[in-house]
Amino acid sequence: xxxxxxxxxxxxxxxxxxxxxxxxxxxxxxxxxxxxxxxxxxxxxxxxxxxxxxxxxxxxxxxxxxxxxxxxxxxxxxxxxxxxxxxxxxxxxxxxxxxxxxxxxxxxxxxxxxxxxxxxxxxxxxxxxxxxxxxxxxxxxxxxxxxxxxxxxxxxxxxxxxxxxxxxxxxxxxxxxxxxxxxxxxxxxxxxxxxxxxxxxxxxxxxxxxxxxxxxxxxxxxxxxxxxxxxxxxxxxxxxxxxxxxxxxxxxxxxxxxxxxxxxxxxxxxxxxxxxxxxxxxxxxxxxxxxxxxxxxxxxxxxxxxxxxxxxxxxxxxxxxxxxxxxxxxxxxxxxxxxxxxxxxxxxxxxxxxxxxxxxxxxxxxxxxxxxxxxxxxxxxxxxxxxxxxxxxxxxxxxxxxxxxxxxxxxxxxxxxxxxxxxxxxxxxxxxxxxxxxxxxxxxxxxxxxxxxxxxxxxx
Amino acid sequence: xxxxxxxxxxxxxxxxxxxxxxxxxxxxxxxxxxxxxxxxxxxxxxxxxxxxxxxxxxxxxxxxxxxxxxxxxxxxxxxxxxxxxxxxxxxxxxxxxxxxxxxxxxxxxxxxxxxxxxxxxxxxxxxxxxxxxxxxxxxxxxxxxxxxxxxxxxxxxxxxxxxxxxxxxxxxxxxxxxxxxxxxxxxxxxxxxxxxxxxxxxxxxxxxxxxxxxxxxxxxxxxxxxxxxxxxxxxxxxxxxxxxxxxxxxxxxxxxxxxxxxxxxxxxxxxxxxxxxxxxxxxxxxxxxxxxxxxxxxxxxxxxxxxxxxxxxxxxxxxxxxxxxxxxxxxxxxxxxxxxxxxxxxxxxxxxxxxxxxxxxxxxxxxxxxxxxxxxxxxxxxxxxxxxxxxxxxxxxxxxxxxxxxxxxxxxxxxxxxxxxxxxxxxxxxxxxxxxxxxxxxxxxxxxxxxxxxxxxxxxxxxxxxxxxxxxxxxxxxxxxxxxxxxxxxxxxxxxxxxxxxxxxxxxxxxxxxxxxxxxxxxxxxxxxxxxxxxxxxxxxxxxxxxxxxxxxxxxxxxxxxxxxxxxxxxxxxxxx
Lengths: 460, 577
Ligand SMILES: Nc1ncnc2c1ncn2[C@@H]1O[C@H](COP(=O)(O)OP(=O)(O)O)[C@@H](O)[C@H]1O
Ligand SMILES: [Mg+2]
Description:
The complex is a heterodimer.
Chain A: E1 5-6, E2 9-13, E3 16-20, E4 29-34, E5 40-49, E6 52-57, E7 69-76, E8 78-81, E9 88-91, E10 107-110, E11 127-129, H1 133-136, E12 141-142, E13 149-151, H2 157-167, E14 169-170, E15 177-186, H3 188-201, E16 207-213, H4 224-238, E17 242-248, H5 250-263, H6 277-285, E18 289-290, E19 297-305, H7 314-322, E20 325-328, H8 331-335, E21 348-349, H9 352-355, H10 365-389, H11 396-413, H12 423-434, H13 447-453, H14 455-459
Parallel strand pairs in A: 9-16, 13-19, 13-20, 15-16, 15-17, 17-19
Antiparallel strand pairs in A: 1-7, 2-3, 3-6, 4-5, 4-7, 5-6, 8-10, 11-12, 11-14, 18-19, 20-21
Helix pairs in contact in A: 6-7, 10-11, 10-12, 11-12
Chain B: E1 4-11, E2 14-18, E3 26-30, E4 35-43, E5 46-51, E6 63-70, E7 72-75, E8 83-84, H1 91-98, E9 117-121, E10 128-129, E11 134-140, E12 143-148, E13 155-160, E14 163-165, E15 170-174, E16 177-180, E17 183-186, E18 195-197, H2 208-213, E19 221-225, H3 232-242, E20 247-253, H4 257-266, E21 283-288, H5 294-313, E22 317-323, H6 325-338, H7 352-361, E23 364-367, E24 373-382, H8 392-398, E25 403-404, H9 409-413, E26 426-427, H10 434-440, H11 445-469, H12 476-493, H13 507-529, H14 534-538, H15 541-549, H16 555-576
Parallel strand pairs in B: 8-21, 19-24, 19-25, 20-21, 20-22, 22-24
Antiparallel strand pairs in B: 1-2, 1-6, 2-5, 3-4, 3-6, 4-5, 7-17, 9-11, 9-14, 10-13, 11-12, 13-15, 15-16, 18-23, 23-24, 25-26
Helix pairs in contact in B: 5-6, 7-8, 11-12, 11-13, 12-13, 13-16, 15-16
The complex binds adenosine-5'-diphosphate and magnesium ion.
């Protein structure tokens, strides 16, 4: 290992430090910048040549001067991991924040991880019951899925994430989830909200928390989720835990990415974000999954706040292109007093089909949810029309659909913050409101399910 | 010629080296671990290399070796059923060497060197052969693999063998040159052919809106752009499953790992509707997911295309799906920006549209030396940022392809799947295929198709009025148009990929659907002239039965009986009133 210290900083720009006349330094190698007063900052090599080496400093370059020394550690960044990490609270760069002892590593793992060989993946197919109808009934989550919450400032995405973390269970399985929680640039108050809930429910014992708060260095946010995911992989694939990873807020992560791009004077992609942001985000999100022959799994719930509630904003857009669906929180629903404000029309779970049906949830699940989707969409469309022509100009059929949309929001979408609905209960509720439509309108449902579950036949 | 040099600079997947003098696109082995890379730029004495593997830890001063060879694909028996990364390394092989995660520095040949194949010659000593001449056959999964004289070779058969051989054993000698079953071809160049000919037959996919309204041809090109979640992947997978091509090449280019797993778990259980054999036996999967190295993603589409061309040259119809071409374009952009090239629109390199055309140009139908034809149909998924079709990749693609399947977020929100917009999609082939449909489906099929399109157009106009006055205010005649077009949408256009029966609709059934809807319309038209209300018509038993038929196992029977008299009968009872 080279421990030679260079004092040849030629340029400091944004989060980057340029060092000259070094011996050969490996790409992505870890670097330590030592300030004259002895404090040290960690960084990583982004570009290396005979001419100069570019180091991205995680804790920010504030206070670094040209006289600072730079050491290269001859290895890429590693994360010490151990089974004793459960219950610990760490900083955004992995240092204990809870006053507890240093982590004695069982292993040291590469934080960038490696891509799971697609051949080694096992298809996620175990239904996770979250107790929330809009998720279980309409956008089912399965083990090993990455399903983000697209939200906006001031919307209750944290409540939703916590409710999922509290209530999530795989029916018939006894194991609880271990939670890995990575905060990136959220406020202290928000972080406290999570911590209190973890403590209250005892979840903390089975959680590893990484906190990079709003006033922590922005560039550190680049490594926080990687540390969290490395920990998650260790828990899942080495120790066999079912791991739920909550990453919040991805928007802050992307801002840090943009900052680095700007400092390197890269040609920006859309709205100033780096052209490689898709690849970069994929290197986080694709670390969810299941591996053949391994007991554990990694399920991810990244949270992002869409600037201006704009779903076409690059952060939401690229995320949606990578994740296996999205749960979209809508401001209008909040205004209408509905919690959880999940808008099913724009939400999606791409792995739903794998996790539902006979033996998993119920045989009619797919058909019933398709029907609710279609009917709710039709009803919502009619709201616009009613505003113009009045309810009387509607046909009987249209009036039923209009009412359906209201019922759907009041009975299915809305539920209590501690209301944990079983899947049977959710599906029966859906049938109850579908029963208000003409039977001939139920075009998505096979006859045999109508006869089996429609309240009209069920009671008879 | 210097063949060994050293690294000067490493910046992500782009490595600069000095001391070697390769040609453009030659393969270079980079660093101590001999990572594979390809020359993408030569400036003065510096050579810029895109590396197909992760470069973490690679340092200036490490060695580079010029192989003097471009990136090639290995072609021969054993391709079918394989799962490769972007540079044709078999993923199962990588897993057995590296474990569950993809590490680097492992070379794995595309074709198994140990497997033996039964070679039966089709030529004899003394026969004259040229490049492309079939000299023997090998049973390979679902098809008969045709062993061809490789490009650039011709002469007289000096020797020909019969029996079990590996892909590198000599099976023939042509004018002194030993020939093995395996050939290699540089992926960035199209394989040679004698002549292209216009596609004249639709690629039947079992997807109603595609086959009946916006058909692709065997040898044609199509694009399916859409925002995330609108149905690009499901549609592509439906094509891969149900198309009546003999060979399918599916390129997962920079997309999800779990989607590849889905293909790998579902395909082996499905049957090719044409041959009844397992689907995987006609399929080659290239899986370079979003978190695998970006340079290999760039190469993956060329690798896939080269494999497709090889089977085309045997005289097969090949369907190639690339999901998503946008990720390929972004890989180009990422590499280009590391080269500090002058960017074009939205940061894409100025040569983006040239690359897109070159790629789609490799599709087409060709005439082989013996007069038979082979074809490659290409369908590219496009992932426009924010669903905005004016962006460069979509625009560059639409200038080239002849079929446009426009995915629509509004339809997806209603769970109208496939969410292909019938008003904006088009197929430039559809007119020229009328003859085929008349001969192979029904004489009145083109007529029915046109009627359907007109009806949907009329509906769109009426919907605008409805938005202002409500549907109750419309005259009966127009209410009927709305009612019948609802039937077209819900019965015919919507097709559930996950429903056992609905997932695949043979052409004969597609015709029956349209026929019965048109009959329903015609009877209803007469009925309303006789003062029957559209409300009454909408509630007819036969209407409900028609609607429900698509989810029933015996759908064909139901449709036959509706067309064969049931419809007429119930309308008679209406008229009697
Ligand atoms: N033909 C179809 N039938 C049923 N569901 C579909 C169909 N097409 C798309 N979907 C639904 O839409 C979701 C997203 O489709 P997908 O092809 O993954 O979108 P994209 O690739 O455009 O992001 C699927 O998970 C599925 O639920
Ligand atoms: Mg897709």
